Every structure is written in C-alpha cells, then in structure tokens.
Amino acid sequence: MAVRAIAGADGRFKFSAPDMTVTDLDGLPTRRQCIVMATSDGNGSDWNGVRGRTRSGYILHPIDGTDVTLELAPEDVPLHGRFLAPDGSPLAGASVRLTELMIPRRNDLDAFLERESKAGVLACPPEEHTLYHPHLAPGLDTETRTDTGGRFMLSGLGRDRIATLVVSAPGVIETSLSMMTRDAPSVRTRIGVTGEPTGVIHGAGFTLKLKRGLTIAGVVIDADSRQPIPGLWVGRGNGYP
Fold first, then answer.
1. 80 has which bridge partners?
2. What is the pLDDT at residue 202?
3. Domain-wise residue ranges, the chain
4. How far is Cα 137 from Cα 128, in angstroms, rounded to an integer?
C-alpha cells in the first residue's frame, strides 16, 4: 500500500495514524513496517525504513522511531555509459536494470572509494545506506535499453551514489557492475590474494565491452515414447542440481 504526503514550507511531513497502524496477531494495534521515501524534481531520492515488530527486509538499518529525516541530493550527474558487443560494435537494444542504489556513509563518496580500493576481497561489505528494491522509489528510472550506439542513461538517482546495474542481451553474458553517479575515472577495488584489485566501480560515462555468452541447444523428449515434445518452455536455472 502506497501512502503519500506533501511536505510543508518547513520540509516536514506527517502520515496520519490510521495509515501507519495495523492490528497484530495478538489483536493489539501496532506500528506498520514501511519504507519512507522522499522525491523532488531535480533531486535524487532519499529513504529510510520504519521498523514494526520485525526487522525490515528492504532497508539494512531501519529506525525504531517515527521522526524521520531525509536528505535529497542534487540530480546533476545522470547515470550513463556505453556497452559494446564482444566484437567491439555498439550493443544496441540491451536491457539495463538498476538493482541496488547505495548512499555512502555520511554522503562521503571519496571516503567510500578509498576504503573499497584498499579492502581485501574477503572483507565484509561496508554497511552503507542501501535500497535493495529501487523500483519502489516513485519517479525513479530503474530500467532502460541501449540506443543504436550502445549508450544508456538513467536519471533521478542523485549525486555521488553507487548503483548496481545488470545488463543483458542476446549473445552476451548477463553482467552485473557497480557505477558511481560522478563523472570521474573508474576505481579498482577489492585486493585479491595476488595483491591485484579484483573489482571495479565505474565512473559515469564509462565504456565496457561485454563477453560473449554461451548458447545452449538441445531437445526435449518423452521419457517413455522417446518422441520430441513440442511447445515446452525451457529456461535457465540457478545453482546445481
């Protein structure tokens, strides 16, 4: 259920009690667990979780109180880049999806990049301010396709944030990558056992050539008659049998 409120001249907002109260299994009224988000034209969204009786599955550190302060970031660097096919040609029509959006601790992207550039590959991920379901944010672009030049753009994320993207297209490996909403050089991260970085956080405006995917072909037959079975849906599964 989505409930909206308009902030006043002082920036404050309020949801009425009926919107935020549910009857729990014991028959008593209890605060509804929810995500509170703020959006504004020309700014990137901010969000936080308000805890009910259980831990939020959408926000890493939901708050226990009901007095929420949200800080919007200027939207002056849209997420943009270019993907190339394995042969170096522009990858047109590829699906580009935003799957996570993170605000660095204390809004300090420089400090976050410095930590990640020195962290070992086995170090625990930093507990930053992460939205694991960005499609929940109203007005936020979370999916697009590359143009004929292989370029894409996603707007509304806000300055100095880290986005996780998944790009997919026929003939290439589905690829997950991290980007920053800042026009800056890419940063190598996560030092491996050889002393070399194992990951990268791309700067806005990057170009990346994707690897060729594997094509799997086969036939589906009836176990008894050994005859082909037409019209079946065949999909890719995750994990091992």
1. 153
2. 97
3. 17-73, 79-209
4. 18
Identify the DSSP state of 122: T
pLDDT tens digits, residue range 181-193? Answer: 999 999 999 999 8
The string of pLDDT tens digits covering residues 91-135 is 999 999 999 999 998 889 999 999 999 999 888 776 678 888 888
Q: Which pLDDT does position 124 carry in this prediction? A: 79
Provide the greatest CA pair distance for the chain.
74
- Rounded to whole angstroms, the Cα distance separating 188 from 53 reads 40
pLDDT band per the 50, 70, 90 thresholds, residue 240: very low
Spatial separation of the C-alpha atoms in residues 200 and 230, rounded to whole Å: 44
Cβ pair 112, 65 in contact under 8 A? no
**What pLDDT, on the 0 to 100 scale, is given for residue 54?**
52
> Cβ neighbours of residue 70 under 8 Å, at least 6 residues apart?
36, 37, 38, 46, 47, 48
Q: Is 121 left (phi over 0), alpha (psi -120 to 50) or beta?
A: alpha
Q: Which of 130, 141, 132 is nearest to 79 (CA)?
A: 141
CA-angle at 203, arms to 198 and 204, nearest 5°: 145
Task: Name the nearest CA neighbour of 23 among 1, 53, 58, 44.
Answer: 53
* Dist. CA 146–CA 167, nearest whole Å: 10
Nearest to 158 by CA among 54, 72, 97: 72
Q: So what's the pLDDT on residue 19?
A: 60
Superfamily of domain 79-209: Immunoglobulins (2.60.40.10)
Q: How many alpha carbons fall within 13 Å on the CB side of residue 236?
A: 7
